[in-house]
Specification:
By secondary structure, the chain is α/β, with parallel strands linked by helices. It is built from 18 helices and 15 strands.
Length: 494
C-alpha cells in the first residue's frame, strides 16, 4: 500500500532524477503506480472516498424510531438493555450476535442527535490559593504491623499549585481525624493557603439536616486558621479531581517504595509512620521551586493549634460503662451515676471528672463495639462470680490468650469452681502485674501442671524469675581431654 510519504518523495525525485523509472524505484513503487499518482497529483489520503453505501440491510431499520424514542427519554440506556427489550417485544427477530451492530448505531445516534455531554473545564491554579484534602483507604497496599494486617486510612492534603502533599494515618473519617490531619499539614507546611476544599465529608458538612452548611466544629476550625472553606457539589467527585489524582499517584509511589524495601511489614506504627514521612519528603523535594512561590503568599500560622477533639458529657451507667458515639467503654466503678466529661480524639478518649483526667482509653474503630477494661469491674465480679459466665462482655475479660487457656482448663477440670478460680487469677493480675500472672500461667502450662489461683499466686509472689522449659543450656565443651588422647595416639604410633 502506497503511503503519503512515498508519493511526496516521488514528486521531489521527479525533478532530480533522469527518468520516471528511477524516481519510482527510489520512492519504493513500480513505474505504473508512480505514473498514476503523478497524473492525479494527489496524495493517497486525498483519493480515499467516504463509504456511503451499505453492504447489507440494517436489521434495526424498522424499529429504529421506537429505539430512538426510548433513547431520547432515557439517554443512559445501553445497547444490551435495548437489545433485550427488542428480543422480548419481537420474539425471534433479533439475535445476540447483532449486539455490536446495535451498539454502533446507538453510538452514532448519540453523537449526531443525543444530548450534549458534560464538559470538563481545565483549571489554572495560582500560588497559595487552594488546598484540597480527603481520606483514602490504604487496605490494598497490604501493610502489616508485626505480621498483623494494619487496616487504616490516610488523611491526604495537597496544595494544588505546587502539588506539595502531606498525610496523617487515621482510622475513620471523623471530625477529629480531619482536624488532626489538616492541622498537621498546615504546621508542617508552615503557612496557610486562602481556601481549603473537601469532599462532602460528614465531618465537615451537615449531610442530613443542612447539606449546604459546614458543621459547627469544622467552621470553628476554619475560623481559627483564617481559611475559606469550599466543598464539591453533590455527586460531582470530579470537582475534587486534584486530590483524587494525588491519591492514586501517592499510593503507586508507596507501592513501589515498599517493593524496593522488600517487605510490607513494620515493627511498629511509628516505624511505618516514619517510612511515610520519608516518602512524602522525597516526593516534595522535586516541588521546591513552585512551593517557594506558594510560601511567598501564604498566611502565617496562628499562635497555637486548636484542640483536635470533640467534647461530650455522659452519665456513667450502673454497669460502670459509658456510651460514646455508638460505642461502649468501661470506666472506674466509683464513677457510677456521675456525669463525666469525655474528650474525643482521633485515636483515644480522655475521661475527666471535677477538672481532673481520670482515664485515657484507646478509641474503638467503627460503631456498636465495646471495650471493657477488666480492672474496672474485677472487684465486683469477685464478689458476684455467678454473673461472670453470662456477662454480656464476657469475652473482654481475657487479657491474653493464656488467660483464656487457663479459663478453658479450669472449666474442663474444675467446672464447679472454674469461674471463682479464674476471677481470683484475674484479680491477682489487677493487683499485682498482668505480665507476672501471664508468665506464671506459661510456666505451669509448659510443665503440664494443674492450674489453680493459689499456685499462680505462689509463683507470682515468689519474686523469682520464671524460666522457660524450652530454654536449653548447652555447656561449653572442654577439648583438653581430646588433646591428651591425640598426644597418647602419637606416642603409640610414633
Amino acid at each position: 500500500m502506497v503511503t503519503d510519504k512515498q508519493v511526496r518523495m516521488l514528486m521531489k525525485l521527479k525533478k532530480t532524477e533522469k527518468t520516471q523509472y528511477l524516481a519510482a524505484s527510489k520512492a519504493g513503487m513500480d513505474e505504473k503506480t508512480a505514473r498514476k499518482y503523478l497524473r492525479n497529483n494527489k496524495l493517497p489520503s486525498q483519493q480515499k472516498k467516504d463509504h456511503t453505501w451499505r453492504t447489507r440491510k440494517d436489521p434495526f431499520e424498522e424499529v429504529w424510531s421506537e429505539v430512538s424514542d426510548h433513547l431520547r427519554t432515557n439517554p443512559g440506556l445501553d445497547g444490551t438493555t435495548i437489545l433485550f427489550y427488542l428480543q422480548r417485544e419481537y420474539p425471534g427477530k433479533f439475535a445476540d450476535g447483532q449486539l455490536r451492530t446495535l451498539q454502533r448505531k446507538i453510538k452514532i445516534w448519540r453523537a449526531l442527535e443525543g444530548p450534549g455531554k458534560e464538559i470538563f473545564f481545565p483549571q489554572e491554579h495560582k500560588p497559595g490559593r487552594l488546598a484540597e484534602s480527603d481520606f483514602t483507604d490504604m487496605s490494598k497496599l497490604s501493610i502489616t504491623i508485626v505480621g498483623q494486617h494494619f487496616k487504616h486510612l490516610l488523611y491526604h492534603f495537597v496544595l494544588t499549585y505546587s502539588n506539595w502533599e502531606h498525610g496523617t494515618i487515621c482510622f475513620s473519617e471523623s471530625y477529629e481525624s480531619l482536624s488532626e490531619g489538616l492541622q498537621n499539614a498546615l504546621w508542617e507546611l508552615g503557612g496557610i493557603p486562602t481556601e481549603h476544599k473537601t469532599d462532602r465529608l460528614s465531618a465537615a458538612v451537615h449531610k442530613v439536616s443542612h447539606p449546604e452548611e459546614f458543621t459547627r466544629a469544622y467552621s470553628g476550625l476554619l475560623k481559627h486558621y483564617g481559611l475559606r472553606g469550599r466543598k464539591i457539589q453533590a455527586g460531582k467527585a470530579n470537582e475534587n479531581g486534584d486530590i483524587e489524582q494525588r491519591h492514586f499517584r501517592f499510593k503507586n509511589a508507596l507501592d513501589q517504595a515498599l517493593m524496593l524495601r522488600g517487605s510490607r511489614d513494620f515493627s511498629s506504627r511509628d516505624e511505618y509512620r516514619s517510612f511515610l514521612d520519608q516518602l512524602f519528603n522525597q516526593l516534595n523535594a522535586g516541588r521546591q521551586s513552585r512551593l517557594a512561590e506558594e510560601m511567598k503568599v501564604v498566611k502565617p500560622l496562628p499562635a497555637r493549634r486548636l484542640n483536635d477533639c470533640k467534647r461530650q458529657k455522659v452519665k456513667v451507667g450502673p454497669g460502670s460503662t459509658i456510651h460514646v458515639q455508638h460505642n461502649i467503654y468501661s470506666v472506674p466503678s466509683r464513677l457510677i451515676k456521675e456525669w463525666v466529661d469525655v474528650k474525643i480524639y482521633a485515636e483515644y478518649l480522655e475521661i475527666w471528672y471535677a477538672q481532673k483526667r481520670i482515664e485515657t482509653i484507646p478509641r474503638l474503630k467503627g460503631e456498636y463495639k465495646h471495650a471493657i477494661e477488666y480492672r474496672h469491674v474485677i472487684d465486683w465480679l469477685v464478689r458476684k462470680p455467678g454473673a461472670f459466665e453470662n456477662y454480656r462482655y464476657h469475652a473482654d475479660l481475657f487479657p491474653t490468650s493464656r488467660f483464656r487457656m487457663a479459663y478453658d482448663y479450669l472449666k474442663k477440670n474444675n467446672s464447679a469452681r472454674s469461674d471463682k478460680e479464674y476471677l481470683k487469677i484475674l484479680y491477682l493480675a489487677s493487683k499485682e502485674t498482668e505480665t507476672g500472672v501471664d508468665d506464671a500461667l506459661r510456666f505451669l502450662f509448659d510443665l503440664e501442671k494443674d492450674i489453680s489461683s493459689d499456685l499462680v499466686e505462689e509463683i507470682v509472689l515468689s519474686a523469682q524469675a520464671i524460666p522457660s522449659v524450652t530454654e536449653v543450656i548447652i555447656e561449653k565443651v572442654n577439648l583438653s581431654a581430646y588433646d591428651e588422647l591425640l598426644s597418647e595416639r602419637e606416642v603409640c604410633y610414633g
